[in-house]
Structures are given as structure tokens and as C-alpha cells.
Amino acid sequence: MRFARLAALVALTLSLVAVPRDGKSQPMPNMPRIGYLCAVTCGTAPQRPGRSPLPLDLFSQALETLGYVDGRNIKIEYFPPEQAEPEQRGRLASELVRRQVNVIFVAGESETALAARNATSTIPIVIAVSGDPVGLGLVKSLARPGGNITGVTYLREQVTTKGLELLKEAIPKMSRVAVLVDPTDPAHQRMLKELEARTQSLGVLLRPVEARPPTDFQPAFSAMVKDRVSGLVVLYGSNHYFHSSRIAYLALTNQLAAASSLTLFAEVGGLLTYEPNVRAIQARAAAFVDRILKGAKPADLPIEQPTTFELVINLKTAKALGLTIPPSVLARADEVIQ
Fold it and tell me: Residue 41 pLDDT > 70, yes or no?
């Protein structure tokens, strides 16, 4: 008798737990899925202990400050570094669409954003890329994107020009500057035109030198030495990024002061890096994702541009080149590598 009562009580308890008060089934909501799409700067990036330069790490940290933890209340869908190759952009974007993610986040180059746009016109896309999204046809305008794309962008041409200006300030006597150009990168011609427009006021002569990928950069550097240049601007791009250590080494061994907006270029031996603050960009991108997950539409969210930039100077490289960086330039550095 006592056993029968206990069995009935257990059955009643289970029925109360299994059936909601309204009498309807209420399954747990699906965990939001964020697709992470990145080529170029998400592969085998050079790193130093204590610094986390990879955009995925910074993006995840930024999401956590907003209350989103991967595996707990969101799921970040991403690909291993060996797949983060430029030629894989389209396939990876299509794969994220197949996985039915709620938002696609694009970091790196504008070409990766184009791959995402070509893969879907309905899934919201948040970008954190270089390039002109209006000129590329990604959005109608920065203030009113008008489609499924929003986020953060900056013009690489302006950043590259500022790098040349800083190089000239660091080496006032510099008069001939080489520009390492990848002829297969369409953005490089735009960057080169911006640099050429600035050279007259700086009093320097530009010498564009092409290195077609994949390549050993030695012939390009031999041409620079023959042309007796003393400075070098390394244009931002996928091929240059993946070979940044090699480029920095060749610049140093050929006694060329090299500047670039390539992430961590100064840390692998270049003289200086000038680039937007990557951590700040990832934080703003995470804020866009947060708003979209809460119901905002990309078309209604104006695209932002970065307001903070970082200058990193490698004094070890300066010493090896026999250079003394002026105090006025050092005082503006966000990081000095001793």
C-alpha cells in the first residue's frame, strides 16, 4: 500500500515537471550561432607571449564582456587556421550559410566581405574590414547601409599614407622610397595612387617594385638596392601578410627601413607598424552582433570607422639600421620594442 502511494506520488511529480502550466510543450530556445569568417589575418599570424593578436580571440573576448560565452549561451562557428586561405573565402562563406548561422561576422579584407555577401542576402553580416564598402558595392552608404551588411570599416589607403608620413618623420633625410606591390591585388593600385599624391609635399620619390605571388621576394629587394632606395612601404595584402617575416628579414638584411600597416610587422623585424587598433575594432563589431541578436536590422545600423590607431616602433631594428628615431616620433608610439 505504502509502495503504491509512493509510485503514484512519483508519477504525479513527473507529470507536473513534464507538462508546463499552460499545457503546451515549450522546448528550450536554440542557442544563437555566430559564423566567423576570416581570411588573411586569421591564419598563421606571428605572435609574442602575452599578446593575443588573432581577431578570433579578441572577438570572443569582446563578446564575453557583453555576456556571450561560446558554448554556454552562443555557439561560434569557425574554421581552423589552415583553411583560412584567401582562395577559400567563397566556399567557407557558403558553408556558414549551410550551417544556418544567425549572424556572419567577417574580419580581415573587404574581399572576404564580398564572399559573404555573395553567399547570402538574408543572414545579417557584420564586417570589420579594410576597404570602401560603398565603392565595393557592399552597402548603399555608410549612414544607411540598406541591406544585410553593417559593421566597422576603414580605408587602407589613408592608413598606408600615414605610415609613409611617419617613416619620413623617423628618417628626415630619406628621399627615395620603394613600395612593395602585389600586381594581383586590386587594392594595391589604389594605395599606390594615394601614396603618389602625398610624395610631393613630403619631398620623397616613390619607386614601385612588383613581386608577383607566390614568389621569393629576393629579386624585388635586389631591384630596390640597385635603385638605391633607403626606405620601404609594404602594402597591406594577403600575400604580404603571410610572408611578413620574410619581407621584414629581407628589408633588414638589405638595410632598408620598412613601414607597413600589416599586423605585427614591427614585431617580426620591420621598423614600424601603423594600423587601426584591432582590439577596439573587434569590440565595436561584437557590439553590432549583440544588437542584431537582440532584434536590430543591419540596414538600420550605420557603418562606423575606427577612431584609434596604433604606432609600434622596433628600436632593435632601428639600431641595426644605424638609425636614431627622433624623440617626437617615439613619444607618439603606443609600443616600443627594445
Answer: no
Which residues are bridge partners to 207 per DSSP?
178
Cβ-contact 211, 184 below 8 angstroms: no
Say if residue 175 is in the same domain as residue 300: no
- 62, 17 contact by CB (below 8 A): no
Q: Per the confidence metrics, is the pTM higher than 0.85?
A: no
Residues 79 and 120 in one domain: yes
Q: How far apart are the first and last CA of the chain?
A: 84
What 3-state class would DSSP assign to 205? strand
Confidence category of residue 149, pLDDT binned at 50, 70, 90:
very high
331 is written with which cell numbers? 613619444
Helix %, strand %, coil % for the chain, to 5? 40, 20, 40
Of 187, 34, 39, give the one whose Cα is nearest residue 107.
39
* Helices 186-202, 156-170: crossing angle, 10 deg rounding: 40
**227 lies in the same domain as 99:** no
